Amino acid sequence: MTTEINGIFEQVRDRLKQLGNGIADLAQNHADILESPNIQDSLSKFRQAYEESVTRLANPNFTIATIGTISSGKSTIVNALIGRKIAPIEAGEMSGGILTIRHLVD
Question: At a CB cut-off of 8 Å and minimum separation 6, what does 75 contact?
């Protein structure tokens, strides 16, 4: 499954890079089209979103927050969403905690 996820992330990174290169090419070769203040504003917003996406894809993470009473299935649902046992399932009282999961890119 990890290989499949890495493949998906790689495809998304490649497509994002192609999009960024296409916009850069457009800006360089057709600057006259981009002179409009509205287009300049949209391009600025795109560049900001693009940079944020590149950064987030370089270090992907996933956050799950749960709240519930004792033994209500919080850890069970987290484990089911992830597809393996990563959150503790204990018979004792566990009212809260922090679980951080990071997908490390090879």
Answer: 87, 88, 89, 94
pTM over 0.70: no
Average pLDDT over residues 56-66: 79
DSSP annotation of 71 reads T
Domain assignments of the chain as residue spans, ordered by start:
2-58, 61-106
Q: What is the DSSP letter of 75?
A: H
Structure tokens, 39? 């287009």
The conformational region for residue 83 under phi > 0 = left, psi -120 to 50 = alpha, else beta, is: left
d(CA 82, CA 99): 12
Which of 56, 64, 59 lies closest to 99, judged by CA? 64
- Partners of 61 in the beta sheet? 102
pLDDT of residue 104: 61
| Contact between residue 103 and residue 58 where contact means Cβ atoms under 8 Å apart | no
Q: What's phi and psi for 62, nearest 5 deg? A: -140, 130
